Amino acid sequence: MSRSKNIFEVDASGLREVMGAVESWRHSAELVANVFDEFRGYDGRKKPSYCKVDLTRDGGIATLIVEDDGAGFSEISDIWTLFRTTKKRENASVSGRFNAGEKQLLATAMNAEIITSDQKVIFKNGTRSKRRIKPFDGTKITATFKWDNKEFANAIKQLTNLFPPNGLEYIVNDVKVGTPKQILTTRIELPTVVLSEVDGMNALRESWRMTNVEVLEPIDVPMLYELGIPICEIGKDFPYSMNVMQKVPVPISRDLVSEAYILRCIGKVLESSAFDGVKLLNNEHRLLPFIKGAFKYIVKEESLANLWKWMYDDAVAWSSDKEANIIAMEENMEVLPRGTFAPQTVDRLRNSGIMQSSYDMYGDKAENKRSVLRGDEGLSANAIRAVCPKCKNIFYID
Predict the structure, then answer these.
(1) Which class for 252: exposed (0-12), middle (13-18), buried (19 or more C-beta within 10 A)?
(2) pLDDT (tens digit per residue) in 166-196
């Protein structure tokens, strides 16, 4: 009877099929994220001072080289062992958790070699070999891919959209990459994932922690980042990028996060910044798609009051009293459509006296106007005035 110490085997072709739909540049970014994590520190080993990326293409073959001067792999077998336990899982302030990034890259590459410490590991023609070499200070990974012009150009673009932690030099094709312009940094509570023990079993579990979130000017479109690594577009016309400084709950592809997480992040960033008197939004943003979902996470009255002052100072809530709505518009007030805010946000705004409806402000005028209409125009109690949105002429509906 033969035995193996491992109960599983991994087929590289099968892994390639599973991960092949993920944008090819993300596998390269995993190598860079590993260096960023090493710099932030999680196990007391030597930190790198730089991360250098070279990406070239010749005859349809792209060659990627990622090099750093850190401590290298702690165990050489980490290079080819999927999901091995790692101290990164215990630390919410580094990105790594799956221990799968370089394996995904190796599965999708044509050939690759990794130099670390005194070892060189070669992946070629579906085989793996290793040999001792002269000690190397750090890690150097070289891989080749069949990439077309579009894949190659996108990889260059995306690798320059990563940004390093302060103090680590990050270079892509001999150009030093900096960080986007920072608007502010705020501290909020968000869900993350960390390794914890329950009933004798270690597992990655959701945990709520306070973390810094950097609000940034977008490089291209507003993006959600995890520790400088782009995850996905924020969408819903939110005007800023956000960099979350702890693990974000993402799948192994690292390219999506729940809509609820994004809206919570927006809402809590707005709550914290508005509480501190920092104006991120104005009246040009007040009807954008992110408002309804994000504002329901804003619970501090002072934050809501400041946001209302900056965004809705000339607005009232829609009222079922149509005459009051018309008078509000005649007074150059914007009548916010029904559904602008979620029900819980409406309750907070109304209960705190921050938001008034058109009837709250102009109910008396509306009643007087209806009395005049009934007397002067001979109209019924149900008659209302209407204003043509194009010509502004007033007419009556009875």
Answers:
(1) middle
(2) 999 999 999 999 999 999 999 999 999 998 8
317 CB-near residues (< 8 Å, 6+ apart): 335, 336, 340, 346, 349, 350, 355, 356, 357, 358
- Average pLDDT score over the chain: 90
Q: Which pLDDT tens digit goes with each residue over 328-378?
A: 999 999 999 999 999 999 999 999 999 999 999 999 998 887 777 655 555
Residue corresponding to tokens 């518009």: 329
Between CA 298 and CA 304 the distance in angstroms is 7
The residues, ordered by sequence, that sit 6+ positions from 63 with a Cβ below 8 Å of its Cβ are: 54, 55, 56, 57, 142, 143, 144
Alpha carbons 385 and 393: distance in angstroms, whole number: 10
- Report the interhelical angle of 301-311 vs 259-275 (nearest 10°): 90
Question: In sequence order, what are the residues at sequence separation of 6 or more whose Cβ sits closer than 8 angstroms to the Cβ of residue 392?
Answer: none
CA distance 18 to 176: 34
3-state secondary structure of 330: helix
201 CA to centre of own chain: 30
Q: Are 25 and 159 in contact (CB under 8 A)?
A: yes
Confidence at residue 86, expressed as pLDDT on a 0 to 100 scale? 87
Only one residue has tokens 């130099």, namely: 115
On the 0-12 / 13-18 / 19+ scale of CB atoms within 10 A, 73 is: middle
- Say if residue 330 is exposed, middle or buried (CB neighbours under 10 Å; 0-12, 13-18, 19+): middle
Is the pTM value of this prediction over 0.70?
yes
Please count the CA atoms within 13 angstroms of the CA of 12 that sit on its side-chain side: 17
